[in-house]
Amino acid sequence: MLFRRRKPAGFKEKMRELLWPRKGFLRSIRYLTMRILRLSASPHAVAAGVAAGAFVSWTPFVGVHFIMAFVISYFLSGNMVAAALGCAAFGNPLTYPFIWGITWEIGHLLLSREDHLAGQAVDLAALFHKLNFSELWKPVLEPMLIGAIPPAAVTSVALYALTFYTVKGFQTRRRTRLTERARLRLAGPASDIPSV
Is the pTM of the predicted complex or chain greater than 0.85? Predict the structure, then answer.
């Protein structure tokens, strides 16, 4: 192996690396940011893809987030890679507990169910074991889906605007830098020609 460690990592080191990466969590955030900025698509396509990924991350349908993001991104003329990166950045195991809690509370608030379900317990383990969609819809999926709409709309619009202007500025600066570099490269050999 080309990049293998000389001394394999032990169990303790693997567990520490899992809980707290050696390079820190900011490195992965910087990587995702640079990966999104360097996409060779228009600022609208990149921003629409990221917004689609963030929008579907609020929904309770965890297994199909990428597919939903691709479909929404396709209809918005967005970039599929940006949609996947938006899903991965916004909807991940660190954010899902907060997303689910927020959507649950907003859904019950919008459906005015707080007093209706007070004192009733929902046995999620039994509902997921049966996998009966009709029994799972009313107590769990409906409030989470209704509650996902307001924060998903606000988040996706804000991320669209932020991503659009950031990508546009990055691409403009990069284009200017590359043009200047090409101009200097073309002007360099001409100045080396000796005058007769």
Answer: no
Residue type, 27: R
Q: What are the counts of helices (DSSP H) followed by strands (DSSP E) for the chain?
A: 9, 0
End-to-end, the C-alpha distance of the chain in Å comes to: 58
Confidence class for position 54, pLDDT limits 50, 70, 90: very high
> How much helix, strand and coil, in percent to the nearest 5, is found in the chain?
75, 0, 25
Give residue 39's identity as a one-letter amino acid code.
Answer: L
Residue with tokens 């921003």: 47
Give the gyration radius of the chain's Cα atoms.
24
d(CA 56, CA 160): 14
Q: Which of 97, 92, 108, 114 is nearest to 141 (CA)?
A: 108
Residue in the block written with tokens 């100045």: 191
Tokens 């019950």 -> residue: 108
**What's the longest Cα–Cα distance across the chain?**
98
